[in-house]
Hints:
- By secondary structure, the chain is of the alpha/beta class.
- The protein has helices at residues 2-25, 44-71, 76-99, 105-109, 111-135, 144-174, 188-201, 233-242, 257-267, 309-343, 392-399, 407-412, 435-438, 455-458, 468-483, 487-500, and strands at 180-185, 206-212, 223-224, 227-231, 247-250, 273-277, 290-293, 296-302, 349-355, 361-367, 417-419, 429-430, 433-434, 451-453.
Amino acid sequence: MRKEKELQGKLVRADMLETLDTAIAVKTPAESADDAPSSSWISPGIVLSSVRFLEALIIAIVGLDIWALYIADGTMAGAAAYSGPILILSGAVPIVFQAFGLYTVHALLRVAEQSARVFFAWTTVFAIFTALIFFTKIGDIYSRVWLASWYGVGLLALLSFRTIIGGLVRKWNKDGRLDRRAVIVGGGDRAATLIGSLDDTGGSDITITGIFDDRGDDRSPANVRGYPKLGKISQLVDFARQTRVDLLIVSLPMTAENRLLEVLKQLWVLPVDIRLSAHTDKLRFRPRAYSYIGNVPFLDVFDKPLSGWDSIIKLIEDRLISALGLIAAAPVMALVALAIKLDSKGPVFFKQKRYGFNNELIEVYKFRSMYTDQSDQKAVKLVTKDDPRVTKVGRFIRKTSLDELPQLFNVLKGELSLVGPRPHATQAKAANQLYTEVVDGYFARHRVKPGITGWAQINGWRGETDTSEKIQKRVEHDLYYIENWSLLFDLYIVFTTPYALLNTENAY
C-alpha cells in the first residue's frame, strides 16, 4: 500500500511538471521566442512616472548648470530671478509631453520615430515661456545666451535620455517584463469571446499564458483561439507558484454564484490581481465599478498586495532600516554569539527552512537556542515552557527575541521583510494539527514577504501556538496587515515592537 501511494504521488508530480513544461513551451501568437517567464514584471506605470520625473529633473539641471557656468554673479537676487524659469519649465515638461502622447510604452520603444514629437513638445514649452516673458515685459532680466543654450542643450539632453531609456525598455519588452502574464480561468465559448475582445482592442499590456478549466474537452476545448488548456483549476495554484503569473481573469458568468465563490476561495491565496470578466454580462454596474484592459470591462475582485510604488517604498524601507539595525545591533549580536559558544557546543547560528513569499521555501537565520543534537529543523514539536532541548542562554534569547536578530541578514538578501507575517516552519503545528489544517485560507498570509515582526506580534500573538485559537488569531492579524498596509503602519509596528517584547508570557 505504501509503495502504491508513493508511485501515485510520483505520477501526480510528473503530470504537474509536464503541464508546467507545456505552459512554458507552447507559444501563442502574442509571445516571442525569447520569452522569460521567470523574469519579474516591471510596472509600466512605474517606468513612465520615473521618466516624467527624470525628464523634469534633467531640464532643471541643464538650466541650473548653464546659469552657474555663464550667468551666476554670487548674489541672491540673481539666483532668485533665474530659479523661477527653471522651476516653471521643468514642471511644464511632463505636462506638455503628456499632451503630446510621449508618456506611453509605445513612444519609449520607438525613440527615432518620436524624436520629431519630442522636438515639437520641447519647442512648445519654450515658446509658451518666451510668450510669457514677452507679455509680462520681463525679458530684459534674462540672458539670451542662457535661454538659447538651455533650449539647445536641453533638447540634446532629452533626446539622449530617451535613447538610453528606449534601449532599456526594448530589452524589458523583449524579455516580456512589461506585459502582465495572464491566465484565463474557465474555457469554452466565454473564453473565446473574451480573447477575441482583447485581441480586437489592441494595445493591451497582457500576454495570455493559457486556460484552466475543470470541464472536459467536450464542454471546454483543449485549445481556444490558439491558447492551450493547461489543467484543472485545482492545479492553478501550484502553477502560479512555479511560473510567473500576474493576472487571473475569471471568465465564469456572474450568475454562477456558487461556482464563482468556490473558484475564488481556491485562488485568493495567490499574490496576483484577480479580475472577473464583465464584457458579456447583462447585469451592468456604474461605470466607476469597472476597470479596463483596453476597452474590455472587468470587475476587480482582488488586487495584488504591495504592487507598484508601494513595493518600491517597502523595499527601500527594508534595506535602509535593516542596514541601520545591523550596525546598531552588532555589539549585542557579538555578545550573544560569545555567550552561545561558552554555553554549549555547536554553531552560533541555526538555519531553518520556512515558508516565504508565495510559499517559496527560504532558509531563515537564527541564533542557536537549542542543544545541537536536539535541534528540530522542521519544528515538528513546538518549544514549550522549561523545554529540556533549550540551552540556558537559549531560554534568555528566546524570551527577549534576541535569537531573531540574524534575520536582518535575510532582509538584506530580500528573502524577508522587516514587517510582515512571521515565517512559519514547514511542519509547525497548533494543537497537533498543521497550521494549514487549522486555518482555512492559511496561505493567503504568504501573498507578501514574511517579516521579522508584525501586527500579530505586537498584539500579543507571538510565541507558542498550543491551541487552534492562537494560530487563527495570528492569521487574522496577518491578513488585516496585508489589506491595510502603509508606510506609517509599518513604522508604527517597528517602533512598537520593543515594547511588545516586554510581554514574554508565551515566549519560550
